[in-house]
Amino acid sequence: MTHAMKKITTLAVFSIVLALILYSVFELFEDETEQQGNTGGEYDVSGNPEQEGTAIIPPEASEGTEVGEQAPNISLETLDGRETDLNAYKGQPIILNIWATWCPPCKEEMPEMQRFHEIHGEDVTILAVNATQTEDDPANAARYIDKEGFTFETLLDTNSELSDAYQTFSIPTTYFIHSDGTIQSRKFGPMTYEYMTEKMKNLD
After folding, report:
1. Are 170 and 59 in contact (CB under 8 A)?
2. What does pTM read for this prediction?
3. Where in this protein does the record put region Disordered (predicted)?
4. Is residue 49 included in any domain, yes or no?
């Protein structure tokens, strides 16, 4: 075999090896991307209040309204069919919680919210806003609240107006709103009674 032929053969072998390496890297990258894409609907329900919630719109979206801004006033429906809005509660501190019946972290924190409501309900109003448009059945919220015996105020976000206005990208999401209507802080993921009690100190 001539020197030229040997050189061509060596180059051909090198090209094949390089192609195989690039293909392997590409396949590995695709596998990792798929794994990342498939974790969006999973959640940790271990009881850790710092866990993230369940995505309902793309995480690229902004993380809601800013602390210090006036809370958007949105008209919502109560479980008994009345129309109300956030201004109806202005003048009192509000814990505004966005939740859904299909969301395990939401269900995890609701007994904590009920405990807080029973102890501090005269001083702080809990508004549990159901992301109704994400429910399989709009009646799910009322059935769940009745079944569990929760007595805090529950409102229905039937057209996602509140979720859109607050740019909510995950649930549960909670806004702690001062009596003057400004947002004092916000929480992504489930809360504990102790967490709500601590936040309450800054709402007066």
Report:
1. yes
2. 0.70
3. 35-67
4. no
